[in-house]
Amino acid sequence: MGIDIPLMMRRILTTAECAPLLCFAIMNESLLANARLYAARHQLQIAESLGSGKDGIVIAARRKEKAADVAIKVHRFPESYQREKQAYERPRDHAVRDVLGFNVPQFIGFNDDLRLIEMTIVARPFVLDFAAAYLDSRPDFSEEVWADWEKDKRDQFEERWPQVQAILAEFEQIRIYLLDISPANIGFSD
Questions:
Q1: Burial class of residue 86, CB neighbours in 10 A (0-12, 13-18, 19+)
Q2: What is the pLDDT of residues 61-89, one digit of tens each?
Q3: Do 51 and 6 meet the contact criterion of CB atoms below 8 Å apart?
Q4: Which domain holds residue 102?
Q5: CATH code for the domain of 110
Q6: Cα 186 from chain centroid?
Q7: What integer is the mean pLDDT of 6-32?
Q8: pTM
Q9: Which helix (H) or strand (E) holds 151?
Q10: Cis peptide bond N-terminal to 125, omega within 30
Q11: Which parts of the chain are beta strand (E)?
């Protein structure tokens, strides 16, 4: 009888530890269903996963009528979807295809009900992922928060930090303030 209690407790702990992963998998499956629905409505074939993160999933798709690949991003949360949709509309409205030689995905379409954005796939060098962007004004963070943020970004980009700062300044010209930047989102051609 003493053995059953620890085994039962281990099962509960294992289930509890797996719960966030299971929840994440279920959420991704729901997002994938939205991607499939959008693809069917727009004559797209789902090709492959390009990635997933806290904001959603990104999937490569192919146009059935022509050999063009696109990316579709399905968002988990309405706020990040609306923010990213508006952020992608800005470069389109200002005819921005690249920023200082870094390709910017072009906005193709969207579906508010599915929280989905369709965009072009771009090659390196690129700037991606505007789900955490601020629009119209820089966030009102304390000097300490800004200093910590800048130190973290300097560490991530090392000698390329001045070039990243120049890219950020260009986006600020069209009132997009990128904060969620990383080497995955600002990809150099190497």
A1: middle
A2: 998 777 678 999 999 999 999 999 999 99
A3: no
A4: 4-187
A5: 3.30.200.20
A6: 12
A7: 55
A8: 0.82
A9: helix 143-157
A10: yes
A11: 44-52, 56-63, 69-75, 98-99, 102-103, 107-111, 116-120, 126-127, 134-135, 176-177, 186-187
Strand partners, 61: 46, 70
Among 188, 154, 187, residue whose Cα is nearest residue 51: 187
CB 81 within 8 A of CB 115: yes
Q: What is the DSSP letter of 106?
A: P
How far out from the chain centre does Cα 62 lie? 20
Distances (CA, A) of 80 to 3, 19, 59, 70: 48, 24, 17, 20
- The whole-angstrom separation of Cα 166 and Cα 91 is 17
Distance CA 36, CA 186 (A): 28
Say if residues 15 and 25 touch (Cβ distance below 8 Å). Answer: no
- pLDDT number for residue 190: 80
Q: Which residues on adjacent β-strands are paired with residue 134?
A: 177
C-alpha span between 138 and 141 (Å, rounded): 9
Count of domains forming the chain:
1
